[in-house]
Hints:
Layout: E1 12-15, H1 28-40, H2 45-51, H3 70-96, E2 105-109, E3 112-115, E4 118-121, E5 127-129, E6 134-137, H4 140-147, H5 154-172, H6 175-185, H7 188-217, H8 224-234, H9 237-245, H10 258-271
Parallel strand pairs: 1-2, 2-6
Antiparallel strand pairs: 3-4, 5-6
Helix pairs in contact: 3-5, 3-7, 5-7, 5-8, 6-7, 7-10, 8-10
The structure holds zinc ion (ZN).
Residues 163, 167, 199, 202 line the site of zinc ion.
Amino acid sequence: MRWRMGRRSTNVEDRRGVSLPGRAAGGGIGLLVIIIIAILLGADPAKLLNDITYTQVDPTSSYDRAALSEEDRELADFVSVVLADTEDTWSELFAGNNARYREPALVLFSGVVESACGFAQSAVGPFYCPADRKVYIDLDFYRDLKERFGAPGDFAQAYVIAHEVGHHVQNLLGISEQVRNAQRRLGEAGANRLSVMQELQADCFAGVWAHNADRARGILEHGDIEEGLSAASSIGDDRLQMETQGRVTPDSFTHGSSRQRVTWFKRGLDSGDIESCNTFESKNL
Ligand SMILES: [Zn+2]
């Protein structure tokens, strides 16, 4: 992916190395969220709790960026360029529909992070919190992507951000709220199906971004699409569940299967049009 000449975003919040304030020590709702997510992901909550350590820090103490490795600095730089590119691309697409794109923030963290959606641990992977309109990512996830899930490459990393920004677009378009409202009326299986549709649409939006960014700035290099597809297929719920539980349980899918993720990413990538991303009306996902 050609990215070095790209613009850097001003919306990156670097919270790496920042410990959570002591008031988190009691646990509460945030901790509950972590435990629930951990159970959903098939982790052992008791072990997880041991892994979570909250430390009391002086909130004014500054974090020593010099302690970051060259690789970490470069990754943060890369993330900033990809985020800026999503800002430019989505601003244009929104403007084409006489709407204004409000840019999300992206928080880099390490270990545990506090968001308006509660506390989250790195193990949950990158996520978007609609309540504060921020994307959260621990860059260690990229090491996992490469080493555990066999999806290396800078475009695979860009795809992950573009997917989370896709959730932000859903939030701005009111789709996330509609899904939440509909889910309240449905049983667990029905609510899960809607979650899958929402996830696959975010994949499709990631493809829409790649299509338009490439047309405007020629970012794609030979092999990039394959990297994106490989990331899409390697972090499908069937693969994730195989990794964490050793079996696949379709009813608890919340991201869609590997094949579905590839299909919808490609649909957005080929068309470049968000109209092609209506996963909710699609008869065969
Ligand atoms: Zn998602």
